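# nightly structure sweep
# worker-07 picked up a monomer target from the shared queue
# config: single-sequence mode, recycle default, output format = structure tokens
# input follows
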Amino acid sequence: MRFLYSDWDRQKERQEQLLKDLFKLFRELLAKTAGDAEQALEWLDKIAQRYNIWGQDLDLEKFKKLLEGDGQIKRDGPAGKASLTPKGEKALRHEALTEIFRNMSGGAAGDHRSRATGPGVERQTEVRPYAFGDDLFSISPTDSLNNAVRRSLGEGQSEISVTEEDLAVYETELSAACATALLVDCSHSMVLYGEDRMTPARKVAMGLVELIQTRFPKDKLIVIAFGDDAVEVPLKEVPYLSYGPYHTNTKAAIEMARKQLLRVRSPNRQIFLITDGKPTVLDEDGRRMMDSGPWLNPRIVNRTLDEAAQCRRKNIPITTFMVTDDPVLVQFVEDLTAINHGRAYYTGLGKLGQFLFVDYVRNRRRSVR
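# output follows
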């Protein structure tokens, strides 16, 4: 094999690094704009102009053509509106997943095997004696032959023979399937009070979709957005998840999650709830009650807690991630957690993804009961 070397072109290196940084910035802006490629490009252009990034070799139009050439965006005609392609959506999900795991310690991203050994598909380095019923594919030829040689020589045999007692099989690690419903609060408070809580929640949803689709395709993920109402969001639409009507119908979201999860044939079911506010909506007997006052409405809260209790009876734990430490919300979540026998975290926005993914890993290591 021959290699051709030339002088190192530092200018070309800087240009390539600039493009990598611009691609990454574009995806970050996409996460902020709920997948609106046109808006993200407009913001990118303003940033580039402010910091004199554009030059003779690169401007906004050329950058758009690079994105098109890479298959991340598409446009209806040369001057048409830009929108994400499936490849662009996947790149956005992958970026969200990478960001979440970048600062996490431990094993490989998404490694959520069981601590218990048993029938499974994850082969381990350890071996044990063969037992009736073990799969033939799990037999270790090297260890089995070594056992046969030692036994035959120990018995003074001139020929090597393999018996059942010589057989050794690899241990396998149990990997439990899991069905998860991710409930994302999309009420207007997620973007009020000078704090963007919607973008971190969206990133978590995108990262979880990417994790399950790429590493655990047998797992089931249901994403439900809730504001005035609860709506199931197709996984391909998660990058476009945005805040919407003003109120918080937590009861409808938990009820929809419970019903959807019970349709899934899986021994492990769980609900992840991301919220920044107390429940303020109740639909009952064809009528709707709304109460956005400063305190908890007993009727709305009690009906929501009833749903949490039903989930407990169906062995569906609820893990709540509070992205604000409002005392009224904390009071509600403490009651919900106690009734459901679930868990609750106040995460703050910066650690939301890490907390949720660690909990997902932990729950996948065992049967959720």
